[in-house]
Write a structure and sequence with these properties.
By secondary structure, the chain is mainly beta. It contains three helices and twelve strands, in the order E-E-H-E-E-H-E-E-E-E-H-E-E-E-E.
Length: about 300
């Protein structure tokens, strides 16, 4: 079997650093880039939680989009400060105030992309393949230039900006669309078959492509406080360091993008009904269910340096 793939990457990288002087140093890096490809999967399978399977592997133009690992902008700032000690202090006062060190790491970045789907698990398009989902249509109009609601984890995807694929006209519908899709048929064979509502065309590929939505970004600040205690009687470099590290000190909720395994990338069920959580049917379409960074955590440790 022969596999093909294409990938493209362009980026601008900047770095600004202040070297250690007067007990203070800081460094900042900024990356603005774009990575696109026809598939981000690895030999071992889909390595990323936001990956979709190769529904249109036969035409790479249909699968080209942002890479599953693409992050548009990333800013990282880190710094340390050796807190000065008053030279006039002696004895216990000097020990208490001497050896303190503060540090921080600030990370701010865009989110990774993900894909809107519909009918996952029921093969609504009737492809009869192992790829059991379909692409919906992306709608234009007011409010749909952006497809997400940043800061709204319960309705992150603008579900109103998507629709079941539709035929361009009735002639196309009558000639090409499956008017009695399997996902609409009743389980009771004695019941009459159900016809699709024109111009919905279940077997038509939607125009919402791969990775057209961007997940929530990351804002995280880690802070540390160290107390260095040099014991010259043991050796010149012997140091007992007390450490307190606070991860995500702002306790900011950093949500993960919706993934195929969560079921919340599906805008519609296989029978074309909406799964939006706003319509009261218990759906999770567009909801953010997981986080990428844990809540605030505080860690204490003792480190021996010699």
């Amino acid at each position: 079997m022969f596999y093909q793939g294409r990938s493209y990457f362009n980026a601008l990288e900047l770095q600004l650093a202040k070297r250690m002087s007067h007990g203070f140093q800081v460094q900042g890096t900024y990356t603005w880039g774009k990575s696109s490809d026809t598939s981000s999967a690895t030999v071992a399978g889909d390595a990323f939680g936001n990956s979709i399977s190769s529904l249109n592997w036969f035409d790479m133009k249909l699968t080209r989009g942002l890479s599953d690992f693409n992050v548009g902008r990333t800013l990282v700032v880190n710094g340390t400060w050796d807190v000065p000690t008053a030279k006039s202090f002696t004895g216990p006062a000097r020990w208490i105030t001497d050896g303190w060190e503060l540090g921080l790491i600030l990370t701010v970045s865009d989110g990774v992309p993900f894909t809107s789907t519909w009918g996952t698990g029921d093969d609504p398009a009737g492809t009869l393949s192992s790829d059991d989902f379909a692409f919906p249509n992306r709608l234009g109009g007011p409010g749909c230039k952006s497809l997400t609601n940043p800061g709204n984890p319960s309705n992150y995807i603008k579900t109103e900006c998507f629709a079941i694929p539709t035929a361009p006209d009735m002639a196309f519908f009558n000639a090409n669309c499956n008017q009695f899709p399997a996902t609409l048929q009743p389980t009771d064979p004695t019941q009459p078959p159900v016809q699709v509502t024109a111009p919905q065309c279940f077997n038509l590929r939607g125009n919402a492509g791969r990775n057209i939505l961007i997940g929530p970004g990351i804002t995280n600040l880690d802070f540390s406080v160290f107390k260095n205690n040099h014991i010259r009687k043991i050796s010149e470099n012997f140091n007992v360091q007390f450490r307190m590290e606070i991860f995500n000190i702002m306790n900011h909720a950093n949500f993960a993008p919706p993934g195929p395994g969560d079921g919340n990338t599906d805008i519609f069920a296989s029978d074309a009904t909406s799964l939006s959580p706003t319509n009261g049917n218990g759906g999770t379409a567009g909801a953010l269910l997981r986080t990428t960074i844990p809540e605030r955590q505080i860690q204490f440790a003792v480190k021996f340096i010699f």
